[in-house]
Design goal:
The longest helix has 8 residues. A hairpin with a 4-residue loop joins strand 6 and strand 7. Strands 1, 4, 5, 8, 9 and 10 form a 6-stranded mixed β-sheet that branches. It is built from 5 helices and 11 strands, in the order αβββαββαββαββββα. By secondary structure, the protein is α+β, with helices and mostly antiparallel strands.
């Protein structure tokens, strides 16, 4: 069955098949999927913002972001288009660290990520506070390629990869949920790969 393809691949490779969500297949590559052209950027004027339901809004330059404590992470990633890539290596800043600095208000329950180029995606605050959610600038030991969301992308490994917004520039803390780009276009709001939450229909 197609739904078990990735699990069969994993078994042949001596990998625990339980690492592969249903309906996924394994790839050694890193497919490039982007809404629209890659937006231009200039690190000398680039900044990152956190605002909304916080006590202290943050605005960080590229150098200020790099000066913060960094975390290295090895994790599996899963795309709604059915590919999974295991043991991917990332480096970046924990989103939870930044939200602690911003002092999130009690009424904040959701987060909207905004990207250069107009892309948006939404997540529950509790998901974003997980210890594997990064603002990632490095992949496999090298600066994150523009095709993969450089200079900075959100990394949310426990959700389908459209939630890991490329070219991310802002996080808005919200008291009520709002849907982002793909969510408004039929993709599932929760995007849990293990529950195959690909679409609303």
């Amino acid at each position: 069955m197609l739904s078990a393809r990735g699990k069969r691949q994993a078994q042949k490779l001596g990998i625990d098949p339980n690492r592969v969500p249903p309906g996924q297949y394994l790839t050694d590559g890193f497919p490039v999927l982007t809404v629209g052209p890659n937006p231009d950027y200039d690190l000398s004027t680039w900044d990152f913002q956190i605002y909304g339901e916080v006590e202290d809004e943050l605005q960080l330059s590229w150098d200020e972001l790099q000066a913060l404590p960094q975390k290295d992470l090895v994790t599996d990633i899963h795309c709604v288009t059915r590919w999974s890539k295991l043991d991917t290596a990332w480096r970046g800043v924990l989103v939870s660290d930044l939200l602690e600095r911003a002092r999130v208000k009690p009424e904040a329950k959701f987060v909207m990520a905004y990207s250069d180029g107009g892309y948006t995606t939404n997540l529950p605050l509790e998901v974003v506070l997980d210890d594997d959610v990064l603002l990632a600038h490095t992949f496999d030991g090298k600066p994150l390629e523009h095709d993969h969301g450089g200079p900075l992308r959100l990394l949310v490994p426990k959700r389908y990869f459209w939630k890991s917004a490329k070219f991310v520039r802002k996080l808005e803390l919200m008291s009520e949920d709002r849907m982002g780009f793909w969510e408004l276009n039929g993709y599932h709001n929760d995007a849990d790969p293990w529950k195959e939450q690909r679409h609303w229909f």
